[in-house]
Hints:
Order of helices and strands: HH
Shape: elongated
Mean pLDDT: 77
Number of strands: 0
Helix content: over 70%
Radius of gyration: 23 Å
Strand content: under 5%
Structural class: mainly alpha
Low-confidence stretches: none
Distance between the termini: 79 Å
Amino acid sequence: MAQAPTFAPATAGHPFRTTLKLATGRRARSEDHDLKLFVLSFTAFFVCIYSFIS
């Protein structure tokens, strides 16, 4: 009978991928991008509303 596959822990992986440390860099850039997008959207909304009022 065939043996059930065994899975490695989540930290195991290819040695090259473990040296890249992609998860920490992406998260910081994503949060920074989200903040910039929010500020841009808020500013655009404020300018539109202000231009309609005046």
